[in-house]
Amino acid sequence: MSGSSSHRTSRATGLAAAAEALAAGVQLVVGRYRVEIESGVTWWSDEVYRMHGREPGEIEPTVDLLRSRTHPDDRARLSRTAVVALRAGRPFSSAHRIVDPHGKARTVVVTGQAQHDDDGAVSHVVGYVLDVSPVTREALDRESHRAVGRAMVSAAAVEQAKGAYMAIQGITEDEAGDRLGEAAARAGIPVQAAASQIVAALASHADLAPHDRLAAALAAVHTVERPHGHEAQLARRRQRARS
């Protein structure tokens, strides 16, 4: 496998594994981080230290340290993904490999969202780090290219939809997740489907003011008709339950 193909497979597998594991209720190790833009001062939760093979507080986390522990083949892509997204004011999500001081590699999914000061300038970035190493091998063995693609799109759409809530309504990531879940529940569809509809509607209403744009996107969330095969399957299950 070529280097570029390997990078794409690692990224696709990481995002797909995260989406699938969370949907299935698998308990993944999740940590938080914060990076001050001007000073570069970085904070990690205890979980992120341990993902990097360190005890909490053992070292001082920095952007340069994070870059040095990122697998060499993934560094440029991670930096490019974050820079492009932050310049555009969007949240980002990227899967990459990290290597601890003992040579142990992990696949992690990093999400990030820019926070702004009173002047509207980006002051810091906050986000989550998910260790998806326990499920990536199983995902590699099981998923087709199409399934990986769908999972990537779903994961990215959820992050973008949550980011829109956070940026426009000034709420936390947890609150954004709750509101996205409420929008999905109202339409009776999965969160991933609601997020995809919101992201598509945000793009089509780019001429509106931010709050109006989000309102229009939420109004566009709709029920998706189930395929007839699915209804037949439900009917068979009900029949078996009665017999």
Structural class: alpha+beta
Sheet with most strands? 5 strands, antiparallel
In whole angstroms, the N-to-C terminal distance is 53 Å
Q: Which descriptor suits the 3D outline?
A: globular
Counted by DSSP, the helix tally is 10
Proportion of residues in extended strands: 15-25%
Strands, count? 5
User: Taking all residues together, what is the mean pLDDT?
Assistant: 76
The main sheet orders its strands as 2-1-5-4-3
Helices and strands, in order, run as: HEEHHHEEEHHHHHH
Residue runs with pLDDT of under 50 for 5 or more positions: 1-14
Helicity range? 55-70%
**Which value, in Å, is the CA radius of gyration?**
20 Å
Features:
243 residues, alpha+beta, five-stranded antiparallel beta sheet, 10 helices, 5 strands, 17% strand, globular
Describe what this molecule looks like in 3D.
By secondary structure, the protein is an alpha+beta fold. It contains ten helices and five strands. It has helices at residues 3-24, 46-51, 63-69, 75-87, 133-142, 145-169, 173-187, 191-204, 210-219, 228-242; strands at residues 29-36, 42-44, 92-99, 105-116, 122-131. The chain has a five-stranded antiparallel sheet with strand order 2-1-5-4-3, with helices on both faces. A hairpin with a 5-residue loop joins strand 1 and strand 2 (42-44). Helix 6 packs across helix 8 (191-204). The longest helix is centred in the middle third of the chain and has 25 residues, at 145-169. It starts with a helix and ends with a helix. The model is unreliable at 1-14 (pLDDT under 50).
